[in-house]
Design brief:
- The complex is a heterodimer of chains A (366) and B (487).
- Chain A contains 15 helices and no strands.
- With 366 residues, chain A is mainly alpha-helical.
- Chain A has 2 domains: 4-62, no CATH class; 138-353, MetI-like (MetI-like fold, Orthogonal Bundle).
- The longest helix of chain A is centred in the first third of the chain and has 41 residues, at 71-111.
- The model of chain A is unreliable at 1-22 and 33-67 (pLDDT under 50).
- With 487 residues, chain B is an alpha+beta fold.
- Chain B is built from 20 helices and 14 strands.
- Chain B has helices spanning 4-37, 54-67, 83-95, 111-116, 125-134, 137-142, 171-178, 187-199, 214-226, 246-264, 277-286, 297-307, 322-327, 337-345, 380-390, 393-403, 416-421, 425-432, 446-457, 465-481; strands spanning 44-50, 73-79, 103-107, 120-121, 144-145, 154-155, 158-163, 166-169, 205-207, 232-233, 236-240, 289-294, 349-351, 367-374.
- In chain B, strands 1, 2, 3, 4, 7 and 14 form a 6-stranded mixed beta sheet that branches. A 4-stranded mixed beta sheet of chain B has the order 9-12-8-13, sandwiched between helices.
- Classes of the chains: A mainly alpha (366), B alpha+beta (487).
- Chains A and B meet through α1, α3, α4 and α14 of A and α1, α3 and α19 of B.
Chain lengths: 366, 487
C-alpha cells in the first residue's frame, strides 16, 4: 500500500485512460468522485508512512456500496452482478470440469469394465466385479493397513514436531527469516532425490546410518524396520510444511491473553493447552487435513525405498502396479476410485466430525 | 481504490504480453505436435533400446546405416534402465499407435504378451529360416510364440544377445578346505561343500539373487526345470503344471526344498532376502562367499578390481598384471589378457550351473534381448532389413566383445577374439543349447505370473515347500486367467 510505485505512472495513466476501462469493476457511484481519488494519489512520498495506512483504510471505507438508489434498484444490480459473476467464472469452471471432472468420470467408467492396455477397444462392461476382486484380495487390505499405519504415525509425529518448530520460529529473537528458510530446506528437496539418499544411508555397505546398527542387519529388508524408515523419510520431509501452517495459526493467538494468563498464575503447559491450542484449533485441523490427505496417497518414498517389497506397499503403489505393470486398466481404476473414496471419507471426517473448515468456505475458522 | 487502477493497468498490459506469448508458443507447438502424433519419415528406422548396451547398439546402427547405401538410416532412442519402465514406455507408444516406432529391443519374456496384443509383426519366413540355422536354440525359443491364428509356433522377434548364469567358485579355498577343487554339480553337493568349508573356518555363504524381483523368478525357474518340472505346459500355456501330476508336484516341491535349504543353511547370507546381481558380486569379491550364482559379467569385474587390489578375496595376486589390464582397456581382445584370466581362474573359476540330481540335466534360465518390429510401423519390411543388420554376426561380436553380452549366433563361440574375452564361452554355449536352456514360461500374462510367484516366494525360505507348492499353483492359475490383482 505504499504510494511509491504509483507516483510515477499513476496520474499519467489515469489521464490517458479513464478508470472505466480498468480490469476491476468500479461501482458507478464511485466513478464521479475525483475528490477521493486525487488526494490519495498525490500524497507526497515524504508523508507515505502515515498516508499509506490512511489510504488503506480509505479503500476499505469505500468498499461497502453507498446504496444511493432505492432498495429495488439495488437488488436488480445485485442480480446482474451475480449473473456477470457466473459468466466470469464459467470459463474456469468449464476448464476445471474438463481437466479434473472428465478423468474422474472416465476412471469410474474404466473401473466398471475389463479394459486392458494390451487390447484397447476390446473392453466390456463387467459391473462392480473389479471392486469385488480388489476388496476380496489380501493385497488390498495389507496395503490399506500399511497406508493407514504410515498416515497415522507420520502425521502424529509431524504434528508434535511441527508444533515445536513453529513455537521456536514464533519466538525466535533474531534471524527469523533465516530460521524459516533453513527449516524449509527439506521440504524443498525433491522427494525422490531425498528418498534415494535415505535408501543408500540405510543400505549396509554404502550407508552411514546402516553402520550404526548391529552387524548384518539390513533394515530395508524387513517390514517393520522398512516402514519405520519410510515414516522417518516422510516426517523429515514434511514437518516443515506442518510447522509453517501451524506458525500461521500461532500468529492468531493474542499475546495479551497469554500475558494475562501468566499474571493469573497459569504455567507454560496450562497456557499451551488452555489458550494456545484451543485458539489454534482451526489452523491445526487444516494442517492435519492437508497432511493426512497427502500422507494417505504416499507413493514416491515407498517406490524408491522398498519398491513395495516385504509387505510395505501403499494403496497408491498397488494401483500403480495394477495399472502400469499388469496393464489392467479396469482393476487399476477400481483401486484408484477406492483411494479416491478413502480420501473423501478422511476429508469428510475432518470437516464434519472435527469441524475443520475447507479453505475459502464461509464458516472458515469456526 | 483508484490507487490500484494504474497498477492494474500495468498488470493488464503484462497479461496482454503473456497472452501473446502463449498464443505464439501454441502456434509454434502445433506443427511440432502434429509432427510427433502421426507422420513418420520414410527411410528412417527408429529403434527403442534400453539404456544398458545402448551405446553399442548406436555404434552398430551407424555402421548399418552407412552400409545400407542410403536405403535406411537407423535412429536410436534410449529406454529406461529398468525392464518395467521399458515395457511401459513401449506399451504406451504401441497403444497410442505411434507410427514413428519401428523396432523395439524387448526383454526375452515379453514375446508372448506383445505378440498376442498384436503389437509385433511376425518374422518373415525367409529371415526366420536363416535365424533357425545360425542361432542357438535357447535364445531362439524365447522369441517364439503361437498366436491363435498361427498354425504353429513361429518367430516374433530376432535375438540380438543372450545371457546365462554360471556357478562361480574359489579353487584355492576349496583346495585348502576340501582337498580338491572340483566344483559341485548339484545344489546338494554345493550345500555339503559349503558346510565342510565352514567347518574348516572358511566362508559359508552361497551368493545369488533372491530379493522380490525378476532375479528370484530366474532362480526358481532354473531349479524347477532342473528338477524336471515347469510352471506352464509348453504346449498349452493356459495349463498350470506346478502340481497337476504327482511327478510335477514332486519336482516343484524339490525345487522349493533346495531354495529353502540354501536360504536357511547355517551361515547363509544374512541379507539373502534382499540380494541381487550386484550384492552377490560385491559379497563374493569381499570374500564372504564360498559360491556364487551370477551372469558372466562378474569375471571381468573381478579382474578389474583384482588388478587394482580392491577385491579382498583375490588378495594382491593379480596386482602385477595391472599394466596389461589397463593397456587392454581399449582393446578387450588383447591376447595378453589370457595370462591374467588364467591367473584369476586359480582363485575365481566358473562351472556349469548346478543341477538338482545326477540323473537329470541341470537347466538354467536364459536372459537377453530380442528385436521386434512394431505393428505400428509403416515400413515393416525395411525395419526387418535393419533388424537383420543389427543382429548380424559382425554386430553381435561387437555387443559380445565390447558390451559383455553373449551372442546368440553359435559360430561366434569359436571366434578366436571371442575366446579371449570369454574363457567361459564353451559353458555358456552348452547352457544355451535347446536341451539345456529353460526359458521362463511363455505366456501373455507372464508379468502377472512372475509378480505373483516372486511375491509368494518372498521372503525366500520362510515357508513350507509342500504348502508353498499349492500356494504357487493357486496364484499362477489366477494370474494366467487374469483374475485377481497383482501385489
Amino acid at each position: 500500500m505504499t504510494s511509491g510505485p504509483h507516483d510515477g505512472d499513476g496520474p499519467q495513466g489515469r489521464d490517458q485512460h479513464p478508470p472505466v476501462h480498468s480490469d476491476i469493476w468500479v461501482p458507478p457511484e464511485q466513478l464521479n468522485r475525483p475528490a477521493a481519488d486525487r488526494p490519495a494519489a498525490e500524497v507526497p512520498a515524504a508523508a507515505a508512512a502515515g498516508a499509506g495506512a490512511a489510504g488503506g483504510t480509505a479503500v476499505l471505507d469505500q468498499s461497502p456500496p453507498a446504496a444511493p438508489a432505492g432498495r429495488h434498484g439495488s437488488t436488480d444490480r445485485r442480480r446482474s452482478e451475480r449473473r456477470l459473476a457466473y459468466w466470469l467464472v464459467a470459463p474456469a469452471a468449464v476448464v476445471m470440469a474438463l481437466v479434473t471432472g472428465y478423468p474422474i468420470v472416465y476412471a469410474i467408467w474404466l473401473s466398471l469394465t475389463d479394459a486392458n492396455l494390451r487390447d484397447p477397444g476390446e473392453q466390456k462392461f463387467v459391473g462392480l466385479s473389479n471392486y469385488g476382486t480388489v476388496l476380496s484380495s489380501n493385497y488390498w487390505w495389507t496395503a490399506l493397513a500399511v497406508t493407514v499405519c504410515i498416515t497415522v504415525v507420520s502425521v502424529l509425529i509431524e504434528l508434535v514436531l511441527g508444533m515445536a518448530i513453529a513455537m521456536v520460529m514464533h519466538r525466535a529473537m533474531f534471524g527469523k527469516g533465516l530460521v524459516r528458510t533453513v527449516v524449509l530446506i527439506p521440504y524443498g528437496i525433491v522427494t525422490v532425490a531425498a528418498a534415494i539418499s535415505w535408501k543408500y544411508a540405510w543400505t549396509p555397505g554404502t550407508g552411514y546410518l546402516a553402520n550404526l546398527l548391529p552387524d548384518g542387519s539390513a533394515p530395508l529388508t524387513e517390514q517393520i524396520p522398512a516402514l519405520s524408515i519410510v515414516v522417518l523419510a516422510e516426517v523429515w520431509k514434511t514437518t516443515p510444511f506442518m510447522a509453517l501452517l501451524l506458525l500461521a495459526g500461532l500468529a492468531l493467538v493474542p499475546d495479551d491473553l497469554l500475558k494475562a494468563a501468566q499474571v493469573d498464575g497459569a504455567g507454560a503447559w496450562t497456557r499451551l493447552f488452555r489458550i494456545t491450542l484451543p485458539l489454534m484449533k482451526p489452523a491445526i485441523l487444516v494442517a492435519l487435513l492437508f497432511r493426512t490427505l497427502d500422507a494417505f496417497r504416499i507413493f514416491d518414498n515407498i517406490y524408491v525405498l522398498t519398491a513395495g517389497n516385504h509387505d510395505t506397499g501403499s494403496v497408491s503403489m498397488l494401483g500403480y502396479n495394477n495399472l502400469f505393470k499388469a496393464f489392467n486398466l479396469g482393476v487399476g481404476s477400481a483401486i484408484s476410485i477406492l483411494i479416491f473414496l478413502c480420501v473423501a471419507i478422511i476429508a469428510g471426517i475432518f470437516i464434519k466430525g472435527f469441524g475443520a473448515s475447507a479453505p475459502g468456505s464461509d464458516d472458515e475458522g469456526r | 481504490m483508484n490507487l490500484e487502477v494504474p497498477s492494474r493497468r500495468g498488470r493488464r498490459r503484462r497479461l496482454g504480453v503473456r497472452l501473446g506469448a502463449a498464443a505464439l508458443a501454441a502456434a509454434a507447438a502445433i506443427p511440432a505436435l502434429t509432427a510427433c502424433s502421426d507422420s513418420y519419415e520414410a527411410g528412417v528406422i527408429n529403434i527403442y533400446a534400453p539404456a544398458d548396451g545402448f551405446d553399442f547398439i548406436t555404434q552398430v546402427a551407424e555402421t548399418c546405416s552407412a552400409d545400407s547405401g542410403g536405403q535406411y538410416r537407423i535412429a536410436t532412442h534410449m529406454l529406461p534402465k529398468e525392464a518395467d519402465g521399458q515395457r511401459l514406455q513401449l506399451a504406451r507408444r504401441l497403444a497410442g499407435n505411434d507410427h514413428r516406432m519401428d523396432l523395439m529391443a524387448m526383454d526375452v519374456v515379453w514375446t508372448a504378451e506383445f505378440a498376442d496384443a498384436d503389437w509385433l509383426v511376425p518374422v518373415p519366413d525367409d529371415l526366420a529360416a536363416g535365424l533357425e540355422k545360425t542361432n542357438l536354440g535357447g535364445p531362439l525359443e524365447t522369441a517364439k510364440w503361437q498366436r491363435e491364428d498361427d498354425a504353429a509356433k513361429r518367430l516374433y522377434a530376432v535375438p540380438i544377445w543372450t545371457n546365462t548364469q554360471l556357478l562361480w567358485y574359489r579353487p584355492d579355498l576349496m583346495r585348502t578346505s576340501l582337498g580338491s577343487a572340483k566344483p559341485p554339480q548339484t545344489w546338494d553337493e554345493m550345500l555339503s561343500d559349503t558346510k565342510r568349508i565352514g567347518e574348516a573356518g572358511g566362508p559359508r555363504q552361497i551368493l545369488l539373487q533372491a530379493k522380490q524381483y525378476e532375479g528370484l523368478m530366474v532362480w526358481f525357474n532354473s531349479l524347477l526345470a532342473s528338477a524336471g518340472g515347469s510352471v506352464l505346459d509348453p504346449d498349452d500355456p493356459t495349463k498350470v503344471t506346478l502340481t497337476d501330476t504327482p511327478e510335477h508336484r514332486a519336482a516343484t516341491v524339490e525345487a522349493l526344498r533346495v531354495m529353502k535349504a540354501v536360504a536357511t543353511a547355517p551361515g547363509h547370507d544374512p541379507s539373502i532376502t534382499n540380494s541381487d546381481e550386484s550384492s552377490a558380486r560385491t559379497g563374493m569379491e569381499r570374500g564372504d562367499g564360498a559360491f556364487e550364482i551370477n551372469w558372466p559379467f562378474v569375471f571381468a569385474g573381478a579382474r578389474e578390481n583384482g588388478v587394482a587390489g580392491e577385491a579382498p578375496f583375490l588378495g594382491d595376486s593379480l596386482v602385477r598384471y595391472r599394466s596389461i589390464v589397463e593397456a587392454a582397456a581399449d582393446n578387450p581382445t588383447d591376447p595378453q589378457l589370457e595370462t591374467v584370466n588364467n591367473a584369476l581362474r586359480k582363485r575365481f573359476n566358473f562351472a556349469l550351473y548346478p543341477g538338482i540330481s545326477d540323473d537329470l540335466p541341470a537347466r538354467s534360465t536364459p536372459g537377453g534381448l530380442n528385436i521386434g518390429v512394431a505393428s505400428t510401423s509403416k515400413q515393416a519390411d525395411l525395419a526387418f532389413t535393419a533388424a537383420k543388420c543389427l543382429t548380424s554376426a559382425d554386430a553381435q561380436k561387437i555387443y559380445a566383445v565390447q558390451g559383455g553380452t553373449p551372442p546368440t549366433i553359435a559360430s561366434l563361440y569359436d571366434d578366436p577374439d571371442f575366446k579371449i574375452v570369454y574363457p567361459m564361452g564353451d559353458d555358456i554355449r552348452d547352457q544355451l543349447e535347446a536341451d539345456r536352456a529353460a526359458p521362463r514360461p511363455a505366456s501373455p500374462r507372464y508379468q502377472e505370473i512372475s509378480t505373483a510367484v516372486t511375491a509368494a516366494l518372498s521372503p525366500v525360505g520362510s515357508w513350507n515347500p509342500e504348502k508353498m507348492a499349492d500356494e504357487l499353483a493357486t496364484q499362477v492359475k489366477r494370474a494366467v486367467k487374469g483374475e485377481g490383482i497383482v501385489p
